[in-house]
Structure formats: C-alpha cells, structure tokens
C-alpha cells in the first residue's frame, strides 16, 4: 500500500508544473504560529512544514491554528469540499433533532521509512455553518524519541520494515 501511494505521488509530482523558485514554498507558508499570513489551502499548510523532523508541539500548534484560520468561517459544504480535496477521509456522527448537522472527524495519514504521521480535523456545524473546528497532529517514528504527543511503542520501533525494498524476481 505504501509503495502504491509513493508511486502515485511520484507520478503526480512528475506531472505537475515546475514551481516558481522566486519564493520558496516553505518560507511563504510557514510561521502560522507566529501570526504570519496563513496558507490559502490545506495542501499549502501541509507543505509548509517538515512533519518528520520539526518539534511535535510546534507542528501540532501550527496545524491547529492553520486549520482554524482556513476552515472556521466556511459553510458546512465548503469545509467538506476543502477537506476532501486535500485527501482527507471523513467519518460523520449521527444527526439529532437538536443537532441536525452531525460532527465530522476527518483524517489523513502518510508514512515514510522513518515516521507514520496522522493529521486530523474535527468540526461541528449548526444550520449549515461551521460552529467549531480543531486540528490535531500525531507522529509515530522509529524509536520513541520523536513520537508526538507521547512515546508510542509500536511495530515501527522494532524496525520491522525492510531496510531495502524487496527485489522483484525476473519473469
């Protein structure tokens, strides 16, 4: 699954237009925590940080503030469209007569050889307008030193992933 996602990502990267190198994307979109201008889309917010190596508390705060800045004033259909366009999968709660717009929990995960990273967006709405939105970032890396928000003992810590990709036998 990871190889398939990596292959698709590389194909999409190869098909995308060359970036404008006048302003590095990370410099343009970084510093959400420092009250700098916010990225215009979730994809730009994701591209603004090095999610494997930067401190987890900084990344979690930047993700939460960025999500709130981007999505808090949107309508319910707008927020659903934005998170789906960014590759998030959503799970919805049950509607109720007092709460006709069910809560949504949307997640996106990505794994590298070093870390498994998970981004989450939680939102509630009232009469079609977003009532509350929060972002959360988690990371499980090889070893437990860089895990966020707390050390997680998992299979990745035992380095069970092969160090080199398996060789496909000749046909």
Summarize this structure as a short list of keywords or feature phrases.
alpha+beta; 171 residues; single chain; elongated; 4-stranded antiparallel β-sheet
Structure description:
With 171 residues, the protein is an alpha+beta fold. The protein has one domain. Helix content is 30%, strand content 22%. The chain contains 5 helices and 4 strands; from the N terminus they run αααααββββ. It has a 4-stranded antiparallel sheet with strand order 1-2-3-4. The two termini are 22 Å apart. 18% of the residues are buried.
List the helices and strands and how they pair.
Elements: H1 2-15, H2 25-29, H3 42-47, H4 56-71, H5 76-85, E1 89-92, E2 104-111, E3 115-126, E4 129-141
Antiparallel strand pairs: 1-2, 2-3, 3-4
Which word captures the global form? elongated
- How far apart are the termini? 22 Å
- Report the major sheet: 4 strands, antiparallel
Strand order of the largest sheet: 1-2-3-4
Q: List segments where confidence is low: pLDDT < 50 over at least 5 consecutive residues.
A: 11-33
The share of residues in helices is: 25-40%
Computed over alpha carbons, the radius of gyration is 18 Å
Question: What is the total number of structural domains?
Answer: 1
Helix-strand sequence: HHHHHEEEE
Round the mean pLDDT to the nearest integer and report it: 79
Q: Which structural category fits the helices and strands?
A: alpha+beta
Query: Helix tally?
Result: 5
Proportion of residues in β-strands: 15-25%
Number of strands: 4
């Amino acid at each position: 699954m990871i190889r398939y996602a990596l292959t698709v990502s590389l194909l999409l990267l190869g098909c995308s237009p060359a970036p404008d190198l006048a302003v590095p994307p990370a410099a343009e979109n970084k510093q959400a925590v420092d009250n700098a201008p916010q990225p215009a889309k979730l994809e730009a917010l994701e591209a603004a940080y090095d999610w494997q190596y930067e401190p987890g508390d900084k990344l979690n705060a930047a993700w939460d503030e960025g999500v709130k800045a981007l999505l808090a004033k949107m309508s319910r259909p707008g927020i659903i469209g934005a998170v789906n366009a960014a590759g998030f999968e959503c799970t919805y709660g049950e509607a109720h007569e007092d709460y006709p717009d069910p809560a949504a929990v949307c997640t996106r995960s990505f794994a590298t050889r070093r870390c498994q990273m998970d981004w989450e967006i939680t939102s509630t709405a009232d009469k079609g307008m977003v009532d509350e939105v929060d972002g959360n970032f988690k990371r499980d890396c090889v070893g437990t030193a860089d895990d966020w928000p707390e050390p997680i003992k998992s299979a990745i810590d035992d380095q069970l992933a092969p160090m080199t990709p398996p060789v496909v036998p000749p046909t």
